[in-house]
Amino acid sequence: MRVSVGEQGKVAKKKAIGKTRKPEREEVPAGDNTKHTMRDVARLAGVSISTVSAVINGTPKVSPVRTQRVYEAMQSLDYQPDQIARSLKVGRSRTIGVVVPDITNAFYPEVIRGIEEAAHKSGYGVLLCDSNEDPAREKEHLSTLFSRRVDGVILACSDTSAAYDVLVARRFPLVFVDRIPKGVRQNAVSTNNIKAARMATRHLIDLGHKRIAVLAGDLNFSTHAERLEGFKRAMHQAGLDIPEAYLRSGNLQLEDGYEAGLELLKLKHPPTAVFASNNKLLVGLLRAVSEMHVPCPGKVSVLGFDDHVWNQHFNPRLTSVAQPTYDIGRCAFEMLLARMEDQPLPGKQWSSIMLLDAQLKIRESTAPPASDGRKS
Amino acid sequence: MRVSVGEQGKVAKKKAIGKTRKPEREEVPAGDNTKHTMRDVARLAGVSISTVSAVINGTPKVSPVRTQRVYEAMQSLDYQPDQIARSLKVGRSRTIGVVVPDITNAFYPEVIRGIEEAAHKSGYGVLLCDSNEDPAREKEHLSTLFSRRVDGVILACSDTSAAYDVLVARRFPLVFVDRIPKGVRQNAVSTNNIKAARMATRHLIDLGHKRIAVLAGDLNFSTHAERLEGFKRAMHQAGLDIPEAYLRSGNLQLEDGYEAGLELLKLKHPPTAVFASNNKLLVGLLRAVSEMHVPCPGKVSVLGFDDHVWNQHFNPRLTSVAQPTYDIGRCAFEMLLARMEDQPLPGKQWSSIMLLDAQLKIRESTAPPASDGRKS
DNA sequence: CTGTTAGCGCATTCAT
DNA sequence: ATGAATGCGCTAACAG
User: Fold this and answer.
1) Assigned domain for B367 exists
2) Both A137 and A254 in a single domain?
3) What's chain A's average pLDDT?
4) Are residues A264 and A313 in the same domain?
5) Which residues, 6+ apart, have CB-to-CB distance to A286 below 8 Å?
6) Cβ of residue B54 near strand C, that is under 7 Å?
């Protein structure tokens, strides 16, 4: 179809030279499974190639007649503009990269969902990368993303050591989600972890608890450090102190939560409530509680961070802090979009870290402490 | 900086067009925040542009000296090849599209993980799309993926009506995962649902159960239809029959599982075991069981499809069918890769549907029926 | 081996 | 309002 130049006469001048097509072309059936270009459309519509471009982009005004003809041609050829070529030309790919440490952690799919929906609404594609909690892999991903010429990146980093902005911030717009590297003071969106943890802890305190332990996670991550900070503030404000044995930090895997839980429960003065700083820790803790047959919330109240479907169907139903995961994703994309399109930043907030409020879902795993915990 | 070519005002000769290069650009300023092209590298290395291309692609042999020089130049300029340009030239983007119905459903992140890892290992990027269980959205995604010139697509469809292959199979290589549309007999990978369901059901039967109910889900989806089929076969083989009231199908949301569970448990002859065909149904069922204070597994055994972290920490720990999610993703990519690169198919298997075996994780939610359920 | 050159498909001045 | 021409950055013949 496309090789039959010369028919229309007008275009068949020197143009034939540019088209050094060899007649090796096997016969093509009806132009069905063929990929068509703007030229094909132009020819069929009897207009120039730039007119086609014009109607596609709506740029200059094109007469209704020709517009119509072009549309019909596109239709009949089932023409789809080649975004690759377009990207090369305009220098923007309308694609963003999203790199997360572990898509298997239920927290991330939800923020990805927020990103994805907002992105597609704005015509952006999402290139997904999983760093598997491995800084080296993350770096590699960042590099290939750059090579693929993404317009921007949303990153939930897997590395606690900084140097992020030095590394890539100037290569393309970058916004951090969830975990925010030290030193970063803008282009980031996360949960207001301090506030959330404080609220959660206060809930425990209001219930009458005085001996509250915390499974704090890895304090090298901003998220966990902040949650502990919020916890401490609430405790301090209530005049309660935190025995060293009640403060467990370090790693953040399920097993860590399990072991820490076991040790906590075996203390001569066990806590009457435990706050777990993320979902994995929480599950581990729950397992310890269940294994030691400690009634919950009867003997120990349990409160966790991250709220998933399971939490409300667990037995007992779990009180937990629900992060605004979807909104984190959405906001992150919007922040990135503003940078990518150089929009005037609508307010100071955009040039600083954006903190979203979490919600405390009070269910059955938290209750007033047993009598021995209530005295004083 | 690189646009300072306009010395000649007008292009003198057509012949000179290709030679618009001017050696005016000698000093390489801190080549830091600038994007460099192969030309910059070539100039710095003192070689031709195609030599640079050659060392990058390793295509023809380049003398070690020049190779070295090129590498140094690339290094010092921090040069990253522009994949967009490359894609346009070679006609392949080294990108695949992945569209899932709901990334929030824990099943998909795991298969995505399998896809992602295999893809990156082969140098492919993954464009993620979430159709939100909406056929229209899915279609739209397929269309933009085509426009973005992905080399292939892995699709977990959200539409039960067929016409998939007619629609897109010839536009680009396509592999189905999980849900397989009716009529598709190749380019698909999924769990061997019939076998898995049969095995699970047999486990219940072996335990001594005779009154087994099933929450079958939406039978328009191949996955659910097959699971029911497997269930039926096992029952039939054991000479057990399935009262109509024990077979619940239709929708597959959590609430459906909850309501069905309630009704089942309220029957004059309630089942002694229930098989839930997916994770949401299972959670709903569990909730009903817990709410009615029916001891599990004491009074009713529960077995589910899909195995997530939570399952093994639930109380009681859940017996469930673990699908080979990661492998499904990995295999799907490999199947797609074979098609994209036109590799000779290693065996008939590739040209048919690939079914992976699931694993039955026996835990605590299944046990022999109570005495009143054991008689005949 | 190495350099020159012609486009890939599209957006965009700049002439009409 | 419309069309011819130019090049985005790169690869692949084809020359030398």
Assistant:
1) no
2) no
3) 86
4) yes
5) A261, A296, A302, A314, B313, B315
6) yes
Q: How confident is the model at residue B85 (pLDDT cuts 50, 70, 90)?
A: very high
Structure tokens at A151: 């317009």
Short-list A95, A109, A206, CA closest to A153: A95
**Residue B342 contacts by C-beta under 8 Å, 6 or more apart in sequence?**
none
Q: Residues A143, A260: one domain?
A: no
Residue A48's CATH number:
1.10.260.40
For the stretch A258-282, pLDDT in tens is: 999 999 999 999 999 999 999 889 9
Min Cα separation B84/chain A (Å): 6
pLDDT at B162: 57
Residues B281 and B268 in one domain: yes
Q: Do A116 and B109 touch (CB under 8 A)?
A: no
Which of A82, A171, A310 shows the shortest C-beta gap to B283? Answer: A310
Does strand C come within 7 Å of the CB of A82? yes
CATH number of B113's domain: 3.40.50.2300
> What is the interface size between A and B, counted as CB pairs within 8 Å?
132
pLDDT tens-digit series, residues B28-50: 333 345 689 999 999 999 999 99
Q: Print the domain residue range for B220.
A: 193-323
pLDDT at B252 over 60: yes
Residue B354 class from Cβ within 10 Å (0-12 exposed, 13-18 middle, 19+ buried)? buried
Paired strand residues for A129: A99
Q: Please give the Cα distance from A301 to A295 (Å, whole number).
A: 9
Q: Pick from B82, B148, B309: which is nearest to A149 by CB?
A: B82
Tens digit of each residue's pLDDT (9 = 90 or more) over A92-125: 999 999 999 999 999 999 999 999 999 999 999 9
Is A4 inside any structural domain?
Answer: no
Contact of B228 with B216, CB cutoff 8 Å: yes
- B283 and B308 in one domain? yes
**Percent of residues, chain A, with pLDDT higher than 70:** 84
Q: How far, in Å, are B82, B101, B220, B357 from residue B111 at the CA level?
A: 30, 13, 22, 15
